[in-house]
Amino acid sequence: MHSTRVIHSVSCHAEGEVGDVIVGGVAPPPGESLWAQSRWIAADATLRDFMLNEPRGGVFRHVNLLVPAKDPRAQMGFIIMEPEDTPPMSGSNSLCVATVLLETGILPMQEPCTRLVLEAPGGLIEVSARCAQGRVEEVEVRNLPSFVAHRDLTLEVAGLGSLRVDTAFGGDSFVIVDAEDLGFQVTPDEARELVEVGMRITRAVNEQVGFEHPDNPHWRHVSFCQIAAPLVREQGAWVGRNTVAIQPGKLDRSPTGTGCSARMALLHAQGRLAVGETFIGESILGSRFHCRIEATTDLGGRPAIVPSIRGRAFITGTHQHILDPHDPWPSGYRIADTWPQRLA
Predict the structure, then answer these.
(1) What's the pTM value of the predicted model, to 2 decimals?
(2) Hey, which residues are catalytic here?
(3) For residue 344, is pLDDT > 80?
(4) Among 88, 143, 86, residue whose Cα is nearest residue 117
(5) Mean per-residue pLDDT for 234-261?
(6) Max alpha carbon distance in the chain (Å)?
(7) What is the β-pairing status of strands 113-120 and 76-81?
(8) Is 123 helix (H, G, I), strand (E, B) or coil?
(9) Structure confidence at residue 2 (pLDDT)
(10) With the C-alpha atoms ordered 211, 18, 101, 10, is the resulting torsion angle positive or negative?
(11) What gap in Å lies between CA 205 and CA 146, rounded to an integer?
(12) C-alpha closest to that of 159 among 196, 189, 117
């Protein structure tokens, strides 16, 4: 076996969404902050391509790079690499990172509860992991402040006509549209249509509206389209099924932690969800995140909420990714049968 590099990773998923974690073989990227380091990773693209492109990756895969925290309050930092974006935060990926850190012994596990502070590119998150017999049974993350950007927008979408949409931030930026308005039940058999419609809506909102974050002027686009089914009441909590279309064209398998946070911000602004109330996000697989509005806050003069996300993550394997010096595709490759062309 010949190799010019070896990257060690632990494979993991959170309620169905893959979030692998690089635990060795990669030096921290340059940058004075986690955000600057994530921008370097995004611009350089070498690590992203190596891990996400075929033959090592695929459009279904997310990868997280562990790095030393910059903020002294945090025990570890992590940089999220999604198929097209290198985002400020991800709920499912943070659950995977916390689980890998504790179950591999990188950070010490305390039973029955381990409390951590982790640093994402978008800021600090608080983690509470319920642990028993050496494994992480459930993780709760206190997410970044989340807010509504625009309510009741009229969006013109090719092939769909006029749609009423909202935009919000839950650690990443979303356009939220009613599944019933589009004729969807949000079931697995609709997946290909959901992706295609979601990509068109994301493209339209970026062309017609864009996005502004009050504390991060660099984040100026909507990343995802959340197609949200109507709320139903279950044992005193609101349950909202959804699916999120991720660039360049896949559905989130989990309920999407940042998407649940964005939807809770919208529900709070609509007067439908109060501080302390539970919201259960349900994915296209039927997996669930149990969420809550912990508090209200102010973000650059904009009303915001502090959301929490609770769910499970499961380690599925360990890997050593190598590069044979004779490999004709050292950066991998993308073929449009499984990796669609980016539309926005």
Answers:
(1) 0.96
(2) 90
(3) no
(4) 143
(5) 96
(6) 61
(7) parallel
(8) strand
(9) 75
(10) negative
(11) 19
(12) 196
Q: Cβ–Cβ contacts within 10 Å for residue 161, how many?
A: 8
Say which residue the tokens 């149990």 belong to. Answer: 290
Mean pLDDT for 3-15 is 95
pLDDT tens profile 163-180: 999 999 999 999 999 999
Whose tokens are 């030096």? That residue is 27
Interhelix angle 257-269/91-103, nearest 10 degrees:
130
Query: Tokens standing for 261?
Result: 């946070």
Fill in the amino acid letter for 311: G
Q: Which residues pair with 256 in a beta bridge?
A: none
- Give first-to-last CA distance, the chain, whole Å: 41
267 burial via Cβ count (<10 Å: 0-12, 13-18, 19+): buried
Q: What is the DSSP letter of 127?
A: E
Contacts of residue 208, defined as CB under 8 A and 6 or more positions apart, other chains included, come to 155, 156
Q: What is the CA radius of gyration of the chain?
A: 19
Bridge partners (DSSP) listed for residue 303: 298
Distance, CA of 73 to CA of 221 (rounded, Å): 30
142 pLDDT band (50/70/90 cuts)?
very high
User: Who contacts 18 (Cβ-Cβ below 8 Å, separation ≥6)?
Assistant: 11, 12, 60, 61, 62, 253
DSSP code of 333?
A: B
